[in-house]
Design a protein that fits this description.
mainly beta; four-stranded mixed sheet; 10 strands; globular; six-stranded mixed sheet; 2 helices
């Protein structure tokens, strides 16, 4: 027990001195990965995109993007989802492999069923996608409004240049939507804000 009492304060002081007192997220995480900016640094450009405007909740859906970077140093794709009645979710990052640092076309797959349970029909979200390079420069942001329904949806095939068979999946979107009218572990009851 005495050893534990001596080790604990030492551990706290060590963590404080090393700057590891919290998780490495947000700007701290991003700045640890960035390369220095140079005079000829230019941001990536998203040259094409496509996504459905209507989707059945629970279906896997794809968001297609094409981007290029004159400096050949694209690093990651940022996806921010904002849900009406809930707000914005934490940014989801997909890191690009070396083949995609200069130019790419591909899609991000979102498996829309949520571990938090169902969401109301006609739930609206906005999907914002951008690409960041190794210096932290961000591309233009594309915005795709999306509404969820429970009936089957006929998805339109993606247009050119995404209509080829060679369009790879870049990664997955790891965001689970919440039902804004459900409040935590409530034994399956639905609560309207302020009204049980």
């Amino acid at each position: 027990m005495r050893n534990m009492i001596l080790i604990f304060p030492f551990l706290l002081v060590s963590l404080g001195l090393m700057g590891c007192a919290g998780p490495m997220t947000g700007p701290t995480m991003g700045s640890a990965l960035l390369a220095p900016l140079t005079a000829d640094s230019k941001p990536p450009v998203i040259s094409g995109f496509f996504g459905p405007g209507l989707a059945r909740y629970g279906d896997p859906i794809g968001f297609y993007i094409a981007a290029e970077d004159p400096n050949n140093d694209m690093l990651r794709v940022a996806v921010v989802i904002t849900q009406v009645g809930y707000g914005s979710y934490e940014t989801d990052w997909t890191y690009l492999n070396g083949d995609h640092q200069g130019r790419f076309k591909g899609y991000l797959q979102w498996n829309t069923s949520s571990r938090h349970g169902p969401i109301p029909e006609w739930t609206r979200v906005t999907v914002k996608i951008s690409v960041l390079d190794k210096t932290g420069l961000e591309s233009n942001e594309v915005v795709i409004p999306l509404t969820f329904v429970y009936n089957a949806v006929g998805y339109a095939p993606p247009p050119a240049p995404f209509d080829q068979r060679d369009v790879p999946r870049l990664g997955y979107i790891h965001i689970d939507l919440f039902n804004p009218f459900r409040d935590g572990n409530d034994d399956g009851h639905i609560w309207l804000r302020g009204i049980p």
